[in-house]
Amino acid sequence: MINDLENNIKLFINYLKLEKSLSENTISAYLFDLKLFLEYLEEVKKIKTTKDISENVLIDFISHISSRLNKREKNYSEKSVYRKISVLKSFFKYLVIEDVLKDNPAENIDTPKVSRLLPSVLTIDEVNKMLESVEIDSKQGLRDRAILETMYASGLRVSEVINLEINNIYFEDGFLRIFGKGAKERIVPIGKSALKYIEKYYNEGRNLIKNNDSHNFVFLNFRGIKMTRMSVWNIVKKYGKMAGIKKEIHPHTLRHTFATHLLEGGADIRIIQEMLGHSDISTTQIYTHIDKEYLIEVHKTFHPRA
User: Fold this and answer.
1) Residue 112 domain-assigned (yes or no)
2) 35 lies in which domain range?
3) Within this chain, do residues 150 and 58 fall inside the same structural domain, yes or no?
4) Which terminus has fewer CB within 10 Å in the chain: N or C?
5) 146, 201: one domain
6) 64, 200, 210, 252: which is the annotated catalytic residue?
7) 272 pLDDT exceeds 80?
8) Which among 110, 116, 2 is positioned nearest to 62, based on CA atoms?
9) Catalytic site residue 157?
10) 82 and 134 fall within a common domain
11) 255 noted as active-site residue
12) Domain check: are 205 and 284 in the same one?
């Protein structure tokens, strides 16, 4: 028999899907964290009903996950702990709004400040080496070059890359029509180099493997179907290694690099926010943390009394 806590979690997840229109990845993360909390309640606290969850129970759970962070367990980073607390606060706020609970046990729980580490960013030379490491004499090579060019040229998320459809690429006008988190639509410029490789791959690679399951997706695997997030991850890791890049890189590294290079080139932070699809400017502002020595050098060069 399903207990009321499990049922409330299901209702909350449905609320996130239907009313908040959150992405599948975000909803999966919420569900993962809530299941972890549910396991803790049942196994450690022996609690199976929502009304038995108190502020002290939540404090104990936070101490529990924080101790796992301190032990450096897999999947427990400072950011993941912050997210788990935020998920719980959202969940209990929802339960109060829906009159499931009269009082919110998470109301006085502080969300800790997470030290925002600067993301790994590639230099222009490293990007060029990575792109040039791809051999384009095969269908796979053409596809991989087109993917890397697209990610660096437009700063797309992995989910946006694998869901990119050919009818949302405007070759003559030089932009992409992207549906990001929460199905929000945005227009993202894309350069001539990326468009050249997309077109080359589309004509000389994709058209040779497409089938009835390909639909309009641009990037396909060897079976002619839409690629997975992991396959894009492997592509980035593969060519980063081939280019001799020693930094820890992943698909989001190209997104970070896209934003950082635009900022260093003089682009306005709010324009970058729009291109990245960030709803909050504070998310984009992490890219303003340019190296201190660079800022000092700029000041010395251009300030009249430096």
Assistant:
1) no
2) 4-97
3) no
4) N
5) yes
6) 252
7) yes
8) 110
9) yes
10) no
11) yes
12) yes
Say whether both 239 and 182 belong to one domain.
yes
Contact 157, 254 (CB under 8 A): no
* Token duo for residue 64: 């529990």
Tell me if residue 256 is catalytic.
Answer: no
| Alpha carbon of residue 108 to chain centroid | 29
> Quick check: is 17 catalytic?
no
Each residue of 79-103: pLDDT tens digit? Answer: 778 888 889 999 999 999 999 999 9
Spatial distance between the Cα atoms of 192 and 199, rounded to a whole number of angstroms: 10
Catalytic residue among 84, 145, 206, 255: 255
Query: Do residues 162 and 217 lie in contact, with contact meaning Cβ atoms separated by under 8 Å?
Result: yes
Overall number of domains in the chain? 2
Can you give the pTM of this predicted structure?
Answer: 0.61
Same domain, 138 and 86: no
**Residues in the chain, how many?**
306
Distant-in-sequence, close-in-space partners of 301: CB < 8 Å, separation ≥ 6: none
